[in-house]
Amino acid sequence: MVRRIVGLRDDRPVYSDILGHLVEATETHLTVRARDGAIRVPTAEIYRAKTIPDRRRFTPTEALEVAAAAGWPARERGQLGDWLLRATDGWTMRGNSALPVGDPDLPLSEAVDEVTRWYQDRGLPPAMSVPLPLFQRIDAELERRGWTPMPLTLLMTARLADLAAQEDPRVTLDAAPSPEWLTAVAGRKGPLPASAIDVLTGVPQVRFATLRDEGDALLATGRGCVADPDGRWLGLALIGTEERARRQGLARRVIAALVAWGVAAGATDAYLQVEQRNVGAVALYERLGFTTHHVYLTRYLPA
């Protein structure tokens, strides 16, 4: 950043700031490449010049969203500045929507155009999962363009120390999902494409929880992973109970086993994502000690 003296007013200097990349420095001038092009500034006109960081530090909301994205790795990923572009053959909206955090390095309108092209080139409906209220401006732009909203999603968090519970020896944790585990999840989430396995197993530290009855019939499942670079977050997903076994506290037992594993892996906090309209699941997580950190709204562009 260069602060330049551009004149005098009441015998006091008037300044103008230039933000850009330094491309030349001589004894007589600096040349800065700004958004509107290269600007040559004589050294006699320079009041102050300083280096500023290329990127601002992410807010807690942005950092958590990035951690959650790492725990659900899309099969194909791209970048638009800081924005993350994700595609996974249409399986799950988390794996097939742009995550607008940080700066896309483009004006908002142009950035949305780029996102649209990226998904259309892959035969997918353009979609974005927008953290709110932090990026209300982005959501307003998508609404103006006619992008359709989906149900609001809560991103809930809790300290692992507050989630400790007695473990159930019937819960087993495996490093890879069994065919029966996948069948149970497909029964709740719909058919799993081959790329779903890439998402589920595409992190170094992951466990697949299974709870069976005395006759070895599968009753409940869950997935836990620690995927963020700092190793802080245990991500919980696909917590589900077979219909015949609901209202018996089995989901709580699956979570307890994954929490114990997460603590052993060095994590200190947990997150999960759940649709706000799933009132039963939200109530369960609140009873366990989870609170809503923030929400996000996914919008897609209709064909």
TrEMBL record:
PROSITE patterns: GNAT (PS51186)
Organism: Dactylosporangium siamense
GO-annotated molecular function: acyltransferase activity, transferring groups other than amino-acyl groups
Cross-referenced InterPro entries: Acyl_CoA_acyltransferase (IPR016181), GNAT_dom (IPR000182), Rv0428c-like_C (IPR056935)
Domain N-acetyltransferase stretches: 150-303
Protein name, as recorded: N-acetyltransferase
